[in-house]
Amino acid sequence: MEPRFALVFDQFLAHIGIERGLASATVDAYASDLRRYVDWLENRGVRTPEDIARRDVEEYVAALDAAGESARSKARRLASIHAFHRFALAQHVVSDDVSAAVKAPKGASVLPDVLTVDEVARLLDAVPQPDPHAPDGYGLENAVLLRDKALLELMYATGARVSEAVGADLDDVDFDERVIRLTGKGGKQRLVPVGRYACEALRRYLDAARPVLERRRTSGQPELRALFLNKRGRRLSRQSVWEVVRTAGGRAHIAKPLHPHTLRHSFATHLIQGGADVRTVQELLGHASVTTTQIYTHVSPEALIETYLTAHPRAR
Known about the structure:
This protein has helices spanning 3-19, 24-43, 54-66, 71-90, 117-125, 140-158, 162-167, 196-214, 238-251, 260-273, 278-285, 290-293, 301-311; strands spanning 173-174, 179-183, 189-193. The protein has a three-stranded antiparallel beta sheet. Helices cover 55% and strands 4% of the residues. It has 316 residues and is mostly helical. The chain is built from 13 helices and three strands. The longest helix has 20 residues, at 24-43.
């Protein structure tokens, strides 16, 4: 932990343990939640409490959602974050409580924003695709564009978690059968079909772009296994996927909050709306319990009205 964070962190724990007299188990719970929060911030390049922005807090909560945290767990972690930021403000460590406007989730049945089919199409088409006959051919910039397109297509085609997408290896993809092996929580693996659009984007990336990225590695052994590589020829990180999604959303002029899990939510919602049964979607998502999958059976107001007008004998 960076020195500035460590100082405020220790002062906060002393405050709630000694001055407020909270039980040691409660103090330990705060410490665990905040240590995870600070580690996440530092991995994003945030080095002091003063550097934390509201967007960082919002994206951390979204990351908890992407990791499959329950609504109760997310609410508890956010409560710890609120307390930490209020303490930092009271001690004049920061000039503003950037966490104040970030609300706890209302419940497990409440979904983050889900994209419409049209919005997904706009998002996926927002990544400019290079002309293979252009004078510069497939240089670094074009290789990254092909990678981003393949990544987004795959995540929507399979509903993969961001950790599953960046953790995928080359031999996990079977183009003949058009499936990919994803490794989820607890190392549990599942086979998920890959649609034509995603297969085509993946083939183009693997044929023309991945070799360019692999050659960018200047130290150590070449990355021979990872499916998706970054600009330095190493396995793509979760943080980089966030940036890919955010950039594509900006190009597509999508106003809704976007994060990698948005594609997973949209994948599941569109399958249910298209007639897929919950058990099938459960298997595709890799959920241990069908209860988790049932949140995607929500019905939009538009669908309710359409069904009512169609089915009720005196609706018209």
